[in-house]
Amino acid sequence: MKNKFYYFLSIIMVFTLSLSAQWDEYKPDPQSVLQLIRKEKMKHVLPLAMRNNNVDMWIHVTRAGDPDPLEYEFGSTSGYLIFTDLGDRIEKAVFAGYFGGEGGIEDIDITASVELRRAITGYDYGKQNFSVYNEITEYVSSRDPKTIAVNYSDWIAVSDGISHTQFKKLEKILGPKYSKRIVSAENVITEFRTRRVLREIVVQTNTLEIARQKVIAKIKTIVPGNIILKAWSHQLHHWQQPGFGTQNMFFSVETFLL
Q: Which of 107, 121, 207, 250 is the most exposed place for a label (fewest CB within 10 A)?
């Protein structure tokens, strides 16, 4: 265990030292980095988050025009993301009008039919037959989860992305049997967002190094008698704010890639 720790630490140090010498020359594609981080979190963190909280299935409901608090974790979505613990792996099903966007996660096991995708996007809404959602009903019943976590919470905003009407619709889709098994996904979401993969740690380490170099470069521009200290301090303080340039857990990725 100790050897693994020193191995990871050495990787971080190598990245930091190389960046220290020429940080402004490294310009990777930000969406590619985000996609890699998302894939690693889905593979390594999601199973732990679900199993540590005794959740067999996690249904994450989103809707176009209503910003999803977990957009940076999953990409742009509109519909139902369903993660099911099959024992040996987590099955990923996407019943959505659209899914993905820049840096969106990949390796989806099951996707919605054309008819269901149209229904979710509101296509010809007045003539919709609710039976089109049987696709989701049958999927859930075939997995028969004992516990279904859904993105609602009365105290954690980022875990409360589902609207009241969406929740009522989900209950109708699931039916009485499975609706009784719904619990809040707040613990799963919290663990999924706060656990870090190695790539995130490396990126955040490099971000701090970039920030340090920017601050030093700014300090060197100070000319006694010619600098308004209050204005300069305000700008420096703005740089140091958590999430500068973003609104999510991946703030370090975007700052790192500026």
A: 107
